[in-house]
Specification:
This protein is an alpha+beta fold. The chain is built from five helices and ten strands; from the N terminus they run αβββαβββααββββα. Helix 1 runs antiparallel to helix 5.
């Protein structure tokens, strides 16, 4: 019975990793990658006033001046118009918000929730945009690139929190580990009781 529990634990860790990789920003080694359709870029966020050169993938510990940076991994992204928008999270999905949740909003709702927007523009090699977050809370970043030949639109949505002071998925992991350990003990107890019944 021990091995199925280990398998379940590993599978659960995979689920947690998938949940953590929400949206279109995913950690790969020491880098964060934003994927916009088949386009991709190294993605970093800086808080120059409060955290100097420390970079973040998504959740930010402080409000204030924020710099979003995309370093293109392929030159093609620098040749297409890219627009960047950040809205307050009005989807109610929090860190699990995805593109379909944004698409369910009306344009007026998006406009009203927008805190920063840059119209489509080409920036070769590296894309940067600054914003001064005055309020902590949950936000959604929306990055869109349009293919120059097919005119197809590719969109990445990444949820993030400003003023983040929580513990992420650590409590969930601890509860899961405790539940699995409790299940293991309970199954062993049942097994021992059945053996005693057979002997009796």
């Amino acid at each position: 019975m021990k091995y199925p529990l280990i398998i379940l634990l590993v599978a659960s860790l995979g689920f947690i990793a998938e949940a953590r990789g929400h949206g279109s920003v995913t950690p790969e080694g020491d880098l964060c990658i934003i994927k916009i359709g088949f386009y991709s870029a190294h993605f970093k966020i800086y808080l120059p006033r409060s955290r100097e050169h420390q970079d973040y993938c998504e959740d930010l510990p402080d409000t204030g001046e924020t710099i979003f940076v995309m370093e293109y991994t392929y030159g093609d992204l620098g040749k297409v118009p890219v627009d960047f928008r950040v809205i307050r999270d009005i989807t109610g999905m929090g860190r699990f918000a995805q593109l379909q949740d944004v698409e369910a909003l009306s344009q007026s709702e998006i406009d009203e929730a927008t805190v920063v927007y840059r119209a489509p523009t080409r920036q070769p090699d590296i894309y940067t945009i600054n914003h001064d977050f005055e309020e902590s809370g949950n936000y959604l970043g929306i990055v869109t690139a349009r293919h120059p030949e097919t005119n197809e639109l590719y969109t990445a949505v990444f949820p993030f929190e400003v003023g983040y002071v929580g513990y992420g998925y650590v409590p969930l992991f601890i509860l899961l580990a405790l539940a699995l350990q409790g299940g293991y003990w309970w199954m062993n107890r049942e097994k021992k009781e059945r053996k005693l019944e057979v002997k009796g």
